Each structure stands twice: as structure tokens, then as C-alpha cells.
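Appendix B, Record 12. Input sequence as logged:
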Amino acid sequence: MNIRLNLATAPLESNRRFAVGAVAVGAVGLVAMLLLSWHVYGVWRADKVFRARQAQLAADTDRLRAERRDLDLFFNQPDNIQRRDLAAFLNGLIVQRAFPWTKIFADLEHSLPDGVRVVSIEPQLKGDHVELRLTVGASSDEGGLKFLRALEDSTEFSEIEVLNEARSSGNADADRVLVALQARYSGY
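Logged structural output:
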């Protein structure tokens, strides 16, 4: 026969609930620590890649600045400045030769009323449009006004601005009114 006898002075306590709770909290803490460690490693790796990329960009920027300094030194040599100025002059001549003189004269012909003539014309290429400075001679004020109205009504000319008007009381063959004006020509 087997008799169970407890000789302890205090009754036996079960710490099973505490142990299970501690293991559960420890397991959650371990999983959280693993996830946080994985996240920290990913951030560290991304930061490492970012710093390497930033260092590469800084090196590229320094290299390009050095190239820019070398090119500035090269192009600011007196020989190259003369060549650049000559090229700009020749390009200007080419643009002037390519200017559609016949088209502008045809457009002006449609706008000129009787008794009005073009005394001088100076085209200047400004960006994507042409600025014209015209000096027009008219036998009367009415002819000059008709010409200005015809220019305002045309689709090729815009932003018309009268710069100067002069009158002469000379001989009958000369223009009595000279009008200097500036206009934007879009038929180019």
C-alpha cells in the first residue's frame, strides 16, 4: 500500500500559470525582437546603398565641375573667342540670307495704299519672331493712316508701334509725311 504523505510545512503551490504566461510573453518578445532586428538590418542596408549612391553622385558632380572648369578655360582662350565671335557673325549672315524678303515685300504690297511707299526696312530676328523697323513715306496724313489701319488689320503684322512722325513742306514730289514704326512680323 502506498500512502501519500506531504511533509512540507506549506501546501504545494502550482506556478504553472506564471510559467506559461512568462513563456508566452517571452515568445512574443522574441518575435518582436526578430522583426525589429530584421527591420533595422533592412534600414541599415538601404542607408548603406543610399550613402554609396550619394558618394557616387558627389564624385560625378566633382568630376563634371572639373570638366566644366577645363572647358571654360579652353573656350575662353583668345583664339577660341575669336573663332566663336566669327561663327556668331557668320551665323547672323546666314540668318539674314535666309530671311524671306520676297514674302515680306509681298505682304507689305497688300497693305500699302495709294500714295504710300516704304522708304526703309530693317528686320531683326528676336527669338522665334522678326521685329521690323519701317520708315514709310506718304503723300498725305490720310494715306499714312490707311497704311497703319491696313497693318493692324493684317494677320502677318502685330504689336505695331509708331516711333516717330515727321512732316516736310518741301517739293511736291517728296513725301509730305514720314512715319517710323516698329511691328512684329509673324509671316516668317
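The radius of gyration is 45 Å.
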